[in-house]
Amino acid sequence: MTTSPLLAIQGLRAAYGKIEALKGVDVAINAGEIVALIGANGAGKSTLMMTIFGKPRARAGQILYEGRDITDVPTHEIAHLRIAQSPEGRRIFPRMSVAENLQMGADATECTEAEREATLQRVFTLFPRLKERYDQRGGTLSGGEQQMLAIGRALMSRPRLLLLDEPSLGLAPLIARQIFDAIRTLNRQDGLTVLIVEQNANHALKLAHRGYVMVNGLITLAGTGAELLQRPEIRAAYLEGGRHG
Ligand SMILES: Nc1ncnc2c1ncn2[C@@H]1O[C@H](COP(=O)(O)OP(=O)(O)OP(=O)(O)O)[C@@H](O)[C@H]1O
Ligand SMILES: [Mg+2]
């Protein structure tokens, strides 16, 4: 049995020109975990996810995946490592059908026809709406359906590690709950490891086994989801009296 994390990020720095977005970040994700990353606007959460995919490139530090240094692996090869992401703002292909969007996900990695079909059926079980809308153009889906499609597309590449950037953003509470339920199901039934970025700290920390708080390009707090939910500074900053509850 291995004790090293599935993903270990150590001393990671990244910048956009002179803007330092990550200033030395340490994050570890164990196989089978859901880990939440929370923090205010501009903290660097999306940058952390994108740096795993090499855009932007790390300026310092290391990203280890299954013990292997993937810091300099080209972006297009990351999917072959069975890492997938659903980026902020969904970014599905609006002119393509649901079917074609899902096929794009499947094309990111090699799989047999039987594997592709089984994965598609799994996505339909999680998100029956996508089956109903199979031939419809992505751009005509509702916001919640587009989020389901973005996650479904990521799943079609059959990842071991799924990175989700603000999956509940802009969604009605009922739809957001469906998304969170699907993530929990994928983790429990399929053993999928998940890193989830969320401004909805309450939901994310209830869903996650562990969480990290990012402030201004640095991790300032880490703990189990339950621990972080109890912390006064978390409650004050992210949970009480506002849109994050
Ligand atoms: N393409 C870019 N060019 C220049 N600066 C950028 C770019 N993307 C992000 N930044 C800056 O990097 C910092 C971190 O941004 P990032 O998008 O990672 O934050 P975030 O935590 O995801 O915020 P949010 O919760 O608003 O999505 C911010 O100061 C932002 O202005
Ligand atoms: Mg972001």
UniProtKB/TrEMBL annotation:
<comment type="function">
    <text>Involved in beta-(1--&gt;2)glucan export. Transmembrane domains (TMD) form a pore in the inner membrane and the ATP-binding domain (NBD) is responsible for energy generation.</text>
</comment>
<keyword id="KW-0029">Amino-acid transport</keyword>
<dbReference type="Pfam" id="PF00005">
    <property type="entry name" value="ABC_tran"/>
</dbReference>
<comment type="similarity">
    <text>Belongs to the ABC transporter superfamily.</text>
</comment>
<dbReference type="InterPro" id="IPR027417">
    <property type="entry name" value="P-loop_NTPase"/>
</dbReference>
<dbReference type="GO" id="GO:0015658">
    <property type="term" value="F:branched-chain amino acid transmembrane transporter activity"/>
</dbReference>
<dbReference type="GO" id="GO:0016887">
    <property type="term" value="F:ATP hydrolysis activity"/>
</dbReference>
<keyword id="KW-0813">Transport</keyword>
<dbReference type="GO" id="GO:0015807">
    <property type="term" value="P:L-amino acid transport"/>
</dbReference>
<feature type="domain" description="ABC transporter">
    <location>
        <begin position="7"/>
        <end position="241"/>
    </location>
</feature>
<dbReference type="GO" id="GO:0005524">
    <property type="term" value="F:ATP binding"/>
</dbReference>
<dbReference type="InterPro" id="IPR052156">
    <property type="entry name" value="BCAA_Transport_ATP-bd_LivF"/>
</dbReference>
<dbReference type="InterPro" id="IPR017871">
    <property type="entry name" value="ABC_transporter-like_CS"/>
</dbReference>
<keyword id="KW-0067">ATP-binding</keyword>
<keyword id="KW-0547">Nucleotide-binding</keyword>
<dbReference type="InterPro" id="IPR003593">
    <property type="entry name" value="AAA+_ATPase"/>
</dbReference>
<protein>
    <submittedName>
        <fullName>ABC transporter ATP-binding protein</fullName>
    </submittedName>
</protein>
<dbReference type="InterPro" id="IPR003439">
    <property type="entry name" value="ABC_transporter-like_ATP-bd"/>
</dbReference>
